[in-house]
Amino acid sequence: MAARLESMANVRENDVPTLTLWQQIKEDWTAHGRDWTKPGFRAVAVLRFGVWRMKIQPKSLRAPFSILYRMLYRKVRNNYGIELPYTVQLGRRVVIEHQGAIVIHGDCWIGDDSIIRQGVTLGNRYLDRPFDAPKLGKSVNVGAGAKIFGNVSIGNGANIGANAVVLCDVPQGATAVGIPAKIIKRGVGSEE
Q1: N or C: which terminus of the chain carries fewer CB neighbours within 10 A?
Q2: d(Cα 151, Cα 182) in Å, to the nearest integer?
Q3: Are 88 and 47 spatial neighbours (Cβ–Cβ below 8 Å)?
């Protein structure tokens, strides 16, 4: 588990331009309409703090920050219904539009400028594959109540309709709706 978390931290550092904790939080605050009271902003800020505290060495110096993170994480989860662990690979300017019943698997990838709405679940599909989690590209728009399960990839600019249940890959720029989700609109440049 520790090796997996460390390798995830290395990937995160290599893929994202280096921003300080405060620069990331300011960028997220701007993306959330400059309203620090929004539960989505608070959830993202707690995730950013959770990632930042993992860089503190030695572990004994990190301990008080870890206790604070766990308290903040539980407050966001219990008060706002947003479960967003620090192990999620969260891109820049991701907006959690509304609160309530949002569950995001710790191994998910969510690309820059994506929007997540209330009632969304991003999780694994099979019990025997606990680390299979969705990967969302950049500028993905996930509608209210949508469920995305398993090791699926959602292409850049894709739209997932409200209450859709996505069990397979969605191409770039496509729109997926229904249970199970079907592609109703192909993106520009994708194959028919």
Answers
A1: C
A2: 17
A3: yes
Q: Which of these, 191, 190, 158, 156, lies nearest to 174 by C-alpha position?
A: 158
CA dist 147 to 26, 32, 50, 74, 169, Å? 29, 23, 25, 22, 13
- DSSP-derived letter for residue 190 is -
Amino acid at 26: K
DSSP secondary structure string for all residues of 33-62: TT-TT-HHHHHHHHHHHHHHHTT-SSHHHH
Q: What is the largest CA-CA distance in the chain?
A: 55
With tokens 């931290």, the residue in question is 9
Question: What's the CA gap between 4 and 167, in Å, rounded?
Answer: 25
Q: Whole-prediction pTM value?
A: 0.86
In whole angstroms, give the CA distance from residue 119 to residue 184.
22
Residue 149's Cα: distance from chain center in Å?
Answer: 14
Domain ranges of the chain: 2-185
**Tens digit of each residue's pLDDT (9 = 90 or more) over 103-149:** 999 999 999 999 999 999 999 998 888 899 999 999 999 999 999 99
List 15's β-bridge partners, or say none: none
CATH architecture of 2-185: 3 Solenoid (2.160)
pLDDT tens for each residue of 3-21: 444 444 444 444 556 899 9
CA separation for the pair 167, 148 (Å, rounded): 6
